[in-house]
Amino acid sequence: MKRLQHASFILPLIVAAFSAYSEEEQDWGIAAMYRSASIPFDTSSHDSIVSTLVPMMFFAGDHFYIDGLEGGLFLFNDENSQWRASAIARMRFVDIPKSVQNSFEGDRIDIGGQIHYNFNDNWQAEVEFMTDDEFQFHSNYRISTHYELGNLELSPSLTFRYKDADFNSEYYAFKTLTKESISSGIDASLRLKARYLVTSNLYLLGETSVTRLDNAAYNSQLVEDRYQGEVFLGFGFFNEKRKQRKPSISNHPYLRIAHGWATPSNMGDIFNFDREKDEYNNQLTSLFYGHPLTDELFGFPLDIYLTPGLVHHWSSEVQSSSTEYVLAIKAYYTFDWPTQWRFGMAEGMSYIDNITYIEGNEMDEKGYTPSNLMNYLDFSFDVNLGDLFKQKNWGNMWVGYSLHHRSSIFEKASQFGRIKGGSNYNTIYFQYEF
Hints:
By secondary structure, the protein is mainly beta. It has 2 domains: about 25-240, Nucleoside-specific channel-forming protein, Tsx-like (Outer membrane phospholipase (ompla), Chain C), CATH 2.40.230; about 255-434, Porin (Beta Barrel). It contains 8 helices and 21 strands. The chain has helices at about 10-20, 100-105, 165-170, 175-180, 215-220, 265-270, 355-365, 385-390, and strands at about 25-40, 50-60, 65-70, 70-75, 85-90, 110-120, 125-130, 135-145, 145-150, 150-165, 185-200, 200-210, 225-240, 255-265, 285-295, 300-315, 320-335, 340-350, 375-385, 395-405, 420-434. The strands form 2 sheets. Strands 1-2-3-4-5-6-7-8-10-11-12-13 form a 12-stranded antiparallel β-barrel.
């Protein structure tokens, strides 16, 4: 199987963010989930269950949204209408034994369109038309509801999925390996999502589903079980449901431009100031936008942003130029000593259209197939220029250092290629707040 070769669906999210700023506190969240799923195929000596660690982001704006494994742009979203239409992208897991996930690169990002209808405040219906990057189609027909029982929220749903013959043959018969072609089919999934408020911004999260495969998929050579189960467990930080959202928050949008240099050193060595220089001097230049979400967490002063970014990796004697797309949530803590300083940390996802030398070389040494999609981390430290130079009108400008990091969570994440390692760039940046 071949992983998605483009990430153009991220670009509209970045453009939409520039036009979506509101001074009020936003609807947002960030979570870490552990997913386990049964493998419906005959695995012989391999495990019958596969697991993965899944970082998730959540955001509900006027123009676009992020909901865990799914993100979308609203094409029609009138608050006075029961209808909504969106262009969407969604992660889809291909559950095969983890020992072969890196070589098969099974997990996919599907793109398509969704029509959403609200029957009332609790009941909704959705119709979706989706494709992978090889134009193998499926469509979803879903009905769902939502209940709140004190601190507990429950969202059950029922989905029927039509899969065309190419889709079924690719993901259930593995046609490229077995040469078996199967017909189209309709499977059915019953799902229950749960969210429990522990305290303040902390929630426990859970989700479970069972899927019944269609006859065509079930009767293929490799499939052994008609039913497949799935469980997510984790925790997250969200808006506090007992509080009304603030009509105004103190942090403002920003633009950050940075330039950085690759290093083969790992994160631990970098923070111990034991950095090795990349012998080919590979470099990047990035532009990030910061969209304010809130200015506190657990009552503690933290400026939190949704931050999409575009990164240009410059060509060198060992690599051609490439473009990286980033979407993350970043938190800043500000302190005075004796001027204003800030620590920052971001968590998100990164997609690059061509694997860079610094990353590809490490994957080759370790025997991995590299992954275009990876987890993204950013650690930063900066100083306020207005305080530093005693210039009041410079108070919205900062300069600092950041570590630009792509990795795959130590072989724990199938969606990031089930690999260990990645790439690091030491960068310097200038940040301007509006």
